[in-house]
Design a protein that fits this description.
Order of helices and strands: HEEEEEEEEEEEEEEEEEEEH
Shape: globular
CATH class: Mainly Beta
Number of domains: 1
Number of helices: 2
Number of strands: 19
Length: about 290
């Protein structure tokens, strides 16, 4: 068995591997990677945003995330009832390989009213929002919240400029449950929460419960038919959308990672091993499906 030091050194080396590009296309570049390891800290709760700062001693990348010219990125507790309805901390837990790891823990004991208690990590004020991206991270969801009848929750979404005024686009990953409390995946693109432009439902791939799993999102930003959004869970294809990935040519405004949101409270989750690449990293993720 590899020592913890050696295994993490190999992980850091894996983060630097060049991606295998499609002929004629540039290799994907690693833009950010962190497992919340030594050097990374979460600021105490305040009136508004809650920053994550520091250099990850394992990967060498520093928080906050500044990809694509982003500024002011941080956790954003919303409708938090003095940080009692939703809160977060970085803690040491058992990782996917059975070894201790530091991870971001988020909990939502209850929702304030009918909307909109949540706490995403927001990559804010993106300056270059017409780029392809690939994101990969580990998630562990509690079991109880997933089996509430007719519930929904999400851990990832992004919005373009103009979304709040009805002229933009949102991409959001959902976990829904049916009337019997059986959870399933849905990927959705919409112009507002009440008006989906498209939905892809997947009841074939089981929703992982109370265990670590890898989630991957890739998109090719486009107003045309060549646009694409892909979502995988533990390497299995959950959804694959072909077509526009925006409206009115609007660029992405902000990305909401580690989102905890939905009507299934009480609920909690852990997030770990975040990677963001400038495109599909073939040597890291295998051939693009």
């Amino acid at each position: 068995m590899l020592s913890r030091t050696l295994s993490r050194a190999l992980l850091a080396l894996a983060f630097t591997l060049p991606a295998g590009p499609t002929p004629g296309e540039p290799a994907a570049r690693l833009l950010f990677a962190s497992g919340f390891e030594q050097g990374v800290t979460l600021a105490p709760p305040g009136e508004d945003y809650q920053p994550i700062t520091g250099r990850d001693a394992t990967t060498g990348f520093s928080w906050p995330i500044t990809i694509l010219g982003a500024r002011g990125s941080a956790l954003h507790p919303i409708d938090h009832d003095r940080h009692r309805a939703v809160f977060a901390r970085i803690e040491t837990v058992t990782g996917h390989d059975g070894r201790p790891t530091r991870a971001l823990y988020q909990e939502m004991p209850y929702e304030v009213g009918t909307c909109c208690t949540q706490m995403p990590y927001e990559i804010l004020d993106i300056a270059d929002g017409r780029r392809d991206l690939y994101l990969r991270f580990r998630v562990r969801l509690d079991r109880a919240s997933l089996h509430k009848p007719n519930m929904w929750r999400t851990f990832f979404e992004w919005k373009t400029r103009g979304y709040a005024s009805g002229r933009g686009f949102r991409l959001i990953s959902f976990i829904y449950s049916d009337a019997a409390g059986r959870p399933y995946f849905v990927l959705q693109g919409d112009r507002d929460p009440q008006h989906p432009l498209w939905e892809i439902e997947n009841r074939r791939i089981p929703v992982p419960e109370d265990r670590w799993f890898v989630t991957e999102f890739y998109w090719h930003w486009s107003s045309g038919a060549d646009g694409r959004v892909l979502w995988r869970i533990d390497g299995k294809l959950v959804a694959d959308h072909a077509g526009p990935t925006t409206r009115n040519a609007k660029p992405i405004d902000f990305i909401m990672l580690a989102q905890i949101y939905g009507d299934s409270s009480p609920k909690h989750q852990w997030i770990d091993d975040l990677e963001i690449w400038s495109g599909w990293p073939t040597e890291r993720a295998g051939p693009l499906p």
